[in-house]
Amino acid sequence: MGWCPVSRLKPGAVLQEDVRAPNGRLLLKKGRVLDKKRIMVLKSWGVTKVCIDELCGNKENKSTELNKELISSLFPSSALQDSLTQRIVFLCFKWLNNAGKQTISQFINHKKYQKISIPKKLKISPEKIVASQKKLCSFSAIYKKMMEVLNDPNSSAQNIGEVISKDTSLSAKLLRFVNSPHFGLVQKIDTVSRAIALLGLDQIKLLVKGIIIIDNFKNLPSDVINMRQFWRHSVGVALMSSIIANTKVGLSREFFFVAGLLHDIGKLVMLMAMPRVYFNIMLYGKENNLPLYEVEKEILDFTHGDVGVILAKKWYFSNSLCEPIKFHHEPLAGTFPEDIAIVYLADILTQLLLHGFGGNIYLPLINKEVLTKSEIDIDSLDLVIGTFLKQINTIETAFL
Ligand SMILES: [Fe+2]
Ligand SMILES: [Fe+2]
To answer: 355 C-alpha to center of ligand 1: Å?
Structure first.
């Protein structure tokens, strides 16, 4: 961070202080990413120097080069001509400290399965996949009982509070989460009933369901992908979705947290039901520069979203929560595209920050229409990513 003469500013620098004109008028707020137009504005108002994240153009040259490397390793080559994709990659890359040289495909386990040629069209349905994993998709006796209480519309707040409190590990996780900096609560919450009173019964029910589902799926074998990295990706998308939702008025952080947490749950069932095929679907995507969901569509005629939504319905999640699970790769196809767009973007940002690994190696171009329709302000994303990086460790400790 330092002061840079306006004459030497390069697009992409981030303001570390508010910028005022010589007459005191506020021109640009702290956190804004400078582009050519904004630099022109500064010049036309006679501003001579501004405080930015890194001195003058030093970083830009280095990062432009590494951006290209990162873009080519994650996106189709046309991304190098796509300004929105480049802008978002740049926003993420600024925080990475050369991590662009890492490769996320290291999290695939190549030891157990061999490359095989998979038929172009496999005759299997998402329903059959879920049905084949009965044990995996159902809960242990104790969680089954708890899910029944959570899903029962007649359960009272007191009743639910008592059931959650009886499970010390679950209630400890819940309290650790609601006391994390993400919620920014002034007073420490030390009982489940207080958490319900402060955050609301519906929000607590959602969070508890999320914790139960992670516990249920967390210890699956890492035959194809590294499961810890898979959950780091899911928790990352959960936190990122929740932070983006928080930048908008009237959206529930807890809803978006759980939507993000479960967005890829269908992949887990597919990985368990057909590991050899799924391993090869991933390899095919890697070798042909295709996003995983496009390969799934090509080979299976359905995606992990279609599998995930069957589970979400089975667990009595609302329609609005089922949608981001089903359509997080195609937000415009859903009934609530604005909501789905948040999880869509959170998924992309988490992958660009190379946080965890959800099985996807290639990303499609970032869809401008999705971001415009959902009125997501790209300039606000710099603060979103900064907040994410500050909070993610505490959230991971609470959940994983
Ligand atoms: Fe996905
Ligand atoms: Fe994902």
So the answer is: 14
E strands present in 15-100: 19-20, 26-28, 49-52
pLDDT band at 376 (very low <50, low <70, confident <90, very high): confident
Contact 16, 382 (CB under 8 A): no
pLDDT value for 29: 85
Domain enclosing residue 127, as ranges:
62-132+222-400
What pLDDT, in 10s, does the model give residues 54-102?
644 455 455 556 567 777 778 887 888 888 888 888 888 777 754 444 5
Rounded Cα gap, residues 149 and 147, in angstroms: 5
Distance CA 394, CA 396 (A): 5
Residues 194 and 143 in one domain: yes
Q: How many independent structural domains does the chain possess?
A: 3
Same domain, 43 and 192: no
Query: Which ligand has the nearest atom to the CA of 303?
Result: 1
- State the ligand closest to the CA atom of 293: 1
- For 6-15, 33-42, 346-355, which range has the lowest pLDDT when averaged over its residues? 6-15
CA dihedral 33, 393, 213, 217 (to 10 degrees): 110
**Up-side HSE of residue 129: CA atoms within 13 Å toward CB?**
29
Asked whether 90 and 67 are in contact (CB, 8 A), the reply is yes
Taking the CA of 357 as reference, the closest ligand is 2
Report how far ligand 2's centroid is from the alpha carbon of 309 (Å). 14
Q: What percent of the chain has pLDDT over 70?
A: 92
Which amino acid, one-letter code, is at 339? D
Q: What is the pLDDT of residues 249-269, one digit of tens each?
A: 899 999 999 999 999 999 999
Among all bound ligands, the one having the nearest atom to the CA of 355 is 2
* Exposure class string for 213-251: b at 16+ Cβ within 10 A, else e: bbbbbeeeeebbbbbebbbbbbbbbbbbbbbbbbeeeeb
- Ligand 1 centre to CA of 326 (Å) is 9
| Location of structure tokens 């329609």 | 319
Query: Residue 49 pairs with which residues in a beta bridge?
Result: 5
**106 part of a folded domain:** yes
Residue that is last in its domain, among 217, 248, 277 = 217
Q: Amino acid identity, residue 9?
A: L
Tell me, in angstroms, the distance from the centre of ligand 2 to residue 268's CA.
Answer: 11
Q: How far is the CA of 111 from the centre of ligand 1 (A)?
A: 24
